[in-house]
Amino acid sequence: MRIQQFNSLYAHPATKQLLRKAMLTSESGVAAGTIPQHLEEIITNTVVRLVPELAVPVLRFDNQKFHEFNRLTGIPSAGSAMGEASTTPIRRSAYTPDSIQLKIMKRKGAVTGFLKDASAQYLAQPASEMENHIQSFGFDLRTYYLFGNKGADSYTFDGLDVNIATNRTNLSSSQVPTDLSLLDAMVDANSRRQGQMHRKVWLMSPELLSKFSSLWTVVRDTRAASRGTSDFEVVGGYRLEAYRGIPILETTGTRPVVDMGTVVLSTAGTGGTIAADTYYIRIAPVTWDGEQVSSAASNSVTTSGSTSTITATFTAVDSALFYKVYCDTVDGSETLVKVVSAFTYDSDGTPTAEITSITLTTDPTVADTDSVPTHMQDDVPLERDPGFNQPMEYLILWDLDEFQGLGKVAYTNTNGSRFRGLITPMEVYNTDDNFPFLLKSYCAQIPAYEATSFIARGLRTA
Question: Rounded to the nearest 5 degrees, what angle is found at the Cα of 146, between the Cα atoms of 144 and 151?
């Protein structure tokens, strides 16, 4: 029964009184044993996310550990005019070889024999649990596509956040768009590098898409109006599906949904090379939903001497894969200085625990170039607007060309059957009363050419 029908039927006081008189309670010793229990066979999913990013890259299989390719970095130089009897000089193009190491992605699950048999009438538990793991695998891959950082975690590959260097902007003021000029500027930057004919997509949150749709103010509705007795009835609402021919994909990986909790800063006088000063530090988790709102501003620690260390302690954030560290000696001027993995690993690369602290031993105002290359060093923390409580978020124009874009994902795991072969499910040898399985993918995003894509950070919807 629909909730509206239920409310309508049982809202009347007299009806409610009849129900009270006729009702046996389900308390123990009253009528609990007479009430049959029926378990709904459709499971309510509370971890739904939009993950269109997995469907758009070009997936290329090959038996390889390193995906090798050449970059054309220069064409023969200018100047073709010369004399009739001249000797034509030889000019050459310039190529730079490059390679990307494929990374190992795995996760294991298991269902006990008892659970398998006890739930057989309800659902095929091993298959259901495998689907849940595939869903988590998809969330992981999406986060690596967008925010992977091998300088922070050597077991991951670099994603768009690291790869896009040429066209990257932080909107430090006027973050709320008032027109579509930002979209035009992003497309123009792509077109200047001959990206007009490339496959491309916009990645933006549903909220940001609604904001841009509202800015499309010239709309002519040519549908016939339904005529009533005296009024016109028109179906309202419109939404941009594409802009300048580029499809818009709604994603949940570019807009924060949580705020980083309390970060406690402490210092030790030995063990590092940090000079005496006051340092303002903010931490931002990168989760399945992308980079989140950073910890509170004005959080500082004062060091002494010249051999200090600084430790930031916090509660691990659910589904975090990385943490970004922002720092400066001036409150409110913090910029990105370091990205770290959300996990610790043993010597074999097995994840052992989630981190709950980050220790800095060198000048925290100097960026770690392994995890924060030059083009990321102007990044500022994502915050919420104090009036409307709307977070700053990402807008991405992703060029999907294999050779002049960032649209290729190479993989080498055979017999892949999920996500167009990218993920391979396999059974694991059974040694106990359970049914184990393993999912794997050996893959990496290939940064063939980054200058046709664009990242804008700091937009808000209000």
Answer: 60
